[in-house]
Amino acid sequence: MSLTVNLYYTGKGGSAQAFAREMEQSGLADRIRQEKGNERYEYFQPLNDSETIMLIDSWHDQQSLDLHHHSPMMKELAQLREKYDLHMKVERFKSIDVNANDDRYLRK
C-alpha cells in the first residue's frame, strides 16, 4: 500500500516557484527521492493559480514517511519554506488496487 501526500505551497510574488526551483537546483529534492521508501517526489503548477506549486510526494508506507519527517533534510526543507514565506495545504491518499475495467477509459 502506498501513501501519497499532495502538498500545495502558496506564496506571493513567485515565491512558491522560487522555492521549487531551489529545491531542485540545490539537490535537496533529489536527496529526498533517494530516501528508502520514496516512490515519487515531483512539483507541478496548477494552471489556474500562478502563486501555488503542488508537490506529489508518495511513500511506500507510513513508516517510510515518518522516517523522512525525522530526517535531517526536514530541517533544510523547513528553512526553505520559511525563507519563501510559504503557506501549505495538505491532502493524503492511500492507494487501492486498480480495477481492470478502468483501463478501457485510458488512452495509451
Provide tags for this entry:
alpha+beta, 4 helices, 108 residues, 4 strands, Alpha-Beta Plaits
In short:
The protein has 108 residues and is of the alpha+beta class. It contains four helices and four strands, in the order βααββααβ.
Give the helices and strands, then pairings.
Layout: E1 3-10, H1 15-25, H2 28-33, E2 38-44, E3 52-59, H3 62-69, H4 73-83, E4 87-94
Antiparallel strand pairs: 1-3, 1-4, 2-3
What report would you give on this structure?
With 108 residues, the chain is an alpha+beta fold. The protein has a single domain (3-95), classed as Alpha-Beta Plaits. The protein has four helices and four strands. It has helices spanning 15-25, 28-33, 62-69, 73-83; strands spanning 3-10, 38-44, 52-59, 87-94. The chain has a four-stranded antiparallel sheet with strand order 2-3-1-4. It is globular. The two termini are 25 Å apart. The model has no long low-confidence stretch (mean pLDDT 93).
Name the helix and strand elements from N-terminus to C-terminus, one letter apiece.
EHHEEHHE
CATH topology grouping: Alpha-Beta Plaits
Q: What coarse outline follows from CA principal-axis ratios?
A: globular
Largest sheet: 4 strands, antiparallel
List the strand order in the largest sheet.
Answer: 2-3-1-4
Q: Give the CA-CA distance, first to last residue.
A: 25 Å
